[in-house]
Amino acid sequence: MRYRIGLGIAATALLATAAWAAGMVVVDQKGLAFSTASLTVAKGTMVSFQNSDSTSHNILVTGGGVTLNSGLQAPGVAFRAPFLKSGTYQVICGIHPKMKMTVVVR
Amino acid sequence: MNLVASDERVRPARLSMRDIGRLAVLACTAVAAIAGIGAVPAQTTGDTSVPADPLLAAFRRPASIPAPADNPTTADKVALGKLLFFDPRLSGSGAMSCASCHNPSLGWQDGLATGIGAHGEVLARHTPTILDIAWAEPLFWDGRADTLEEQAKGPLTAPAEMAMPADRLVATVAGIPAYRAALGRIFPGQGVTIETITRAIAAYERTIVSGEAPFDRWVAGDAAALSDSARRGFALFNGKGHCASCHSGWRLTDDGFHDIGLPGDDIGRAKVMPGLTILDHAFKTPTLRNVAERAPYMHDGSIATLEQVIDLYDHGFVRRPSLSDQIGPLGLSAAEKADLIAFLHALTSKDAPVDYPELPR
Description:
- The complex is a heterodimer.
- Chain A has one helix spanning about 10-15, and strands at about 5, 25-30, 40, 45-50, 60-65, 65-70, 80-85, 85-90, 100-105.
- Chain A contains one helix and nine strands.
- The radius of gyration of chain A is 13 Å and the shape is globular.
- Residues about 1-20 of chain A have low confidence and may be disordered.
- Chain B is mostly helical.
- In chain B, strands 1-2 form a two-stranded antiparallel ribbon.
- The longest helix of chain B has 12 residues, at about 195-205.
């Protein structure tokens, strides 16, 4: 499992007034897999899904009656999604649906 | 939930052994007992040593066959599933079994461009192989079934395919004493249902595994297993040809969905998952195991030979917004195309014939 928590000064300044000021968690995509199968975060956390593969990906988040679709995520690009409500969310890559993980927001 | 997205460049990632690790995670259930069933003799899936070369390691065969926790593979279940798989009484016409389209003598396909239903209907898509299907979820060319158990229900009950209504299927199977007894024993408290029938079929299908091919022996360290041409083809496969971008891993597939520029109106994955342009005309990347013996090719069976397949990727694709970013003019020479063909032939295993079971009355 490999993810990092980023709370740099610049990010804090940028997000200070936003709901996701709770922090940011980075999830990597490499070798057609997410770096973790499940993640538990505090309400208001930003999750940054980074594409470290050489192929394009897609981030599709579903849960709580909501669907988020990143569209095409090119190699080297990160997609950030704020998780503002408690619940359990499924995350897959629409192009490579074997890539799947769960985000639990508390 | 609000959506706030931004793009940022990330550092290049390190090379890792993630592919092979992922296969190891998938292998959640070893099926040592399967060898006694008589379905396919080569149930140990291959060498388990780890090649020193990370590129080769990504193509190494897994050590065991995966199965879901809610449908573990057992010898009893596999034996029953094999009977059901070959039994034409499971179709509406009484004349078509799963094996009619997934014929073991034809690479677990039917050799046709597109399938033929129980009442003679010509289907829209090519029958995919079920070789190595245990690793192949999601299923169907458009990925509409998440599990093999779910997939098995589809053709059985689809009016254009085996055309067997679910209630009649259950009644038919329950009317055969040996099936009724086996399902009751294997699924205590559940008995004969569409779920238990398809679970048994799925369990059998998971034992259909390709044997060791020359490529596997080469990956395992036998330098003489591949010809010079096939070795050059492997280099092209991973380099100039961009083939391994999608045909990755030991089954030579990412189990993903891509528009490779094949002409046609079928939008494929986009019908299942609308809202993403790149999924228009996208179909599941098929395995390349035994591909030389499984013509014709593509989701519509429209290409007759491997040479024509390579020509499509080289220059014959349709340019449209959904075209995969891995597809572009390749400029392959005749010699390079021949090398790729040689590599594809090296993926062929000499599997033992499958014995047809004697069905219960």
